[in-house]
Write a structure and sequence with these properties.
346 residues, mainly alpha, Four Helix Bundle (Hemerythrin (Met), subunit A), two-stranded antiparallel ribbon, methyltransferase activity, transmembrane, methyltransferase
């Protein structure tokens, strides 16, 4: 009899232990597998929830940013509307103020007790006197200033007030001083300059003593070929140089006319000096040349603007009277005899 046959119980016990151990291992493996699968499921669910939460947060942030942009746009629209309303309100207020001023001006003009026509005459006289002064100072327009002074005198003559007597006398003196000027200084100087420019081509090109003295026969024979001149004579005789000098002289004359037109005394005198320097280089010494240079000296010394000490005195006195509160009395024919003597502020 063998050992296996003699000991059957221990072998069965070993097999049962083995099966129990295998079963336990299987149960543990199944439990681990289920735990790992559950953990993976929970992890995937958590990741899905986190991703969904991130998407919701991004959408929420985008919506908040959209709401902020809309809010800024609405705020800008409100500010623009407020500015437009403020501008419209200012314009309405300005229109109201202008309407009130117009009503006040119309009421002042239509009210005979204030006698607004005389105040308007004073305004017109002041404007005419200012225009006359500007014409003389800026453009040297003596004729225009005379007309403006004549209109101002006619305007002041329509105001019957003894307090304007001194003003009218000063205006008469100023008009007499302007009438004594004759033509405008610029016009007279322009005429003299044109007369001088017209005499230039007629200046003799040979010295006067050379034409007066008889020349020797050999000089008369060689005259078509050779022109004999003293060495001290600096007159330009070469045709190209002479043509260039005459062109330069015409340019200087144009510059003198332009300076005279704009009232530039320094430029006018400088142009005349350059003209005077060109004359002895283009023409020899002769009485007409000396006379022309004397004319240039006379033109250089003449003023371009009228020098009147009384110029603007009428305008200054009128402004002083108005700033001192000059009031024009209403003529007696305008109001009734029982009414008091009103006064008007112009």
């Amino acid at each position: 009899m063998t050992d296996d046959e003699s000991n059957p119980l221990p072998r069965g016990r070993n097999q049962r232990g083995l099966w129990i151990a295998l079963l336990a291992i299987a149960v543990v493996a199944f439990a681990g597998w289920r735990s790992w699968e559950s953990w993976q499921s929970r992890r995937a669910q958590a990741q899905a929830q986190a991703s969904e939460a991130e998407q919701q947060l991004a959408a929420l942030q985008e919506r908040v940013e959209t709401l902020r942009r809309d809010l800024r746009a609405q705020t800008q629209r409100l500010q623009d509307a407020s500015a437009s309303n403020r501008i419209l309100r200012d314009e309405v207020l300005g229109l109201g103020q202008r309407g009130a001023l117009l009503e006040e001006s119309v009421a002042r003009l239509s009210d005979p007790s204030r006698h607004g026509a005389q105040a308007l005459r004073l305004d017109e006289a002041e404007m005419l006197l200012a225009q006359a002064a500007q014409r003389l100072e800026i453009a040297g327009d003596v004729d225009g200033a005379r007309r403006a002074y004549a209109l101002a005198a006619g305007t002041l003559d329509g105001i019957d007030d003894h307090r304007l007597l001194n003003l009218k006398q000063v205006l008469a003196q100023e008009r007499a001083a302007i009438d004594a000027l004759g033509p405008a200084p610029q016009a007279a100087l322009a005429a003299q300059l044109e007369a001088f420019a017209a005499q230039i081509p007629r200046l003799p090109r040979r010295p006067a003593d050379q034409d007066a003295q008889p020349r020797p026969a050999w000089q008369r024979l060689l005259a078509p070929l050779v022109d004999v001149r003293p060495s001290r004579d600096e007159t330009i005789i070469a045709p190209p140089q002479r043509a260039a000098g005459e062109a330069a002289l015409q340019i200087e004359l144009s510059l003198a006319r332009a300076a005279l037109e704009r009232g530039d005394r320094a430029g006018f005198q400088a142009a005349l000096d350059r003209i005077d320097a060109w004359l002895p280089r283009l023409w020899p010494d002769s009485p007409p040349l000396r006379q022309g240079r004397e004319q240039l000296k006379t033109l250089r010394a003449e003023p371009l603007r009228p020098d009147l000490p009384v110029l603007g005195s009428t305008l200054q006195q009128l402004r002083q009277l108005r700033s001192a509160g000059l009031q024009l009395r209403v003529p007696p024919a305008v109001v009734s005899p029982d009414a008091p003597d009103p006064e008007v502020e112009p």
